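Please check the following for our workbook:

***
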Amino acid sequence: MKDVTAKVSSVELINHNVYEVKLETEETTFIAGQYLMIVLPTGEQVPYSIGSAPHTLPTLTLFILVSDPDSLAQKVIDHIRASDSITVKMPGGDSHLESGAFVEDVEHILLIAGGTGFSQMKSLYDSLIEQKFKGHVSLYWGLRTPKDIFMQEWIQQAQDSHTFSLDVVVNEADQEWQGRTGWLYEAVLEDHPDLSNSVAFISGSVGMVYGTLDQLETKGLQKERCFSDVFAYAPHPDKPEL
């Protein structure tokens, strides 16, 4: 990863707690699925998946969740808002479109995201469209409630314009929600009972990533064909003995 200067283009609150940040840089490139580190004046480095695809450079898009005004994420937003340009380190991460020398003969790519893990999956999704990928792509995005959804226009356009599938799954539905509910893995397995020739990218919390992987393996997904940034820093929790 190298230091890169990025001009701050915009910072916009796009739902009740997620900011869309647009940066401009001429100094670097990346592979869809990689992340960058925002360098704060304190020296702290905070990782965020890049939510845009490489073909949109020099623009970089980030989605930053701020759940607490005293959080590190709030410090990141405050720093970006107060700056004309910021320093980032990039690119990082090995959960990307060239992971594992990418499986050329794969028929199906699963993109599975929890919360703002959507950023990484959106980058992968947009890149696969740009590359005219001929296989099937299924994006599943899980959120706690309908109000946590963002990028509604992008979702609608993706659902209307492409042969790839995109499903939003909420865990706690309200009376107005007409979409899918439950756990992400349940939606995936309902739609795809045989995953023996699939590749999966999963983004979310450690528990969500490994819990989802465990469920998908029961339907034929090979662990070597599953990619997540979580694998680089968190070991698989011990499975309970039956």
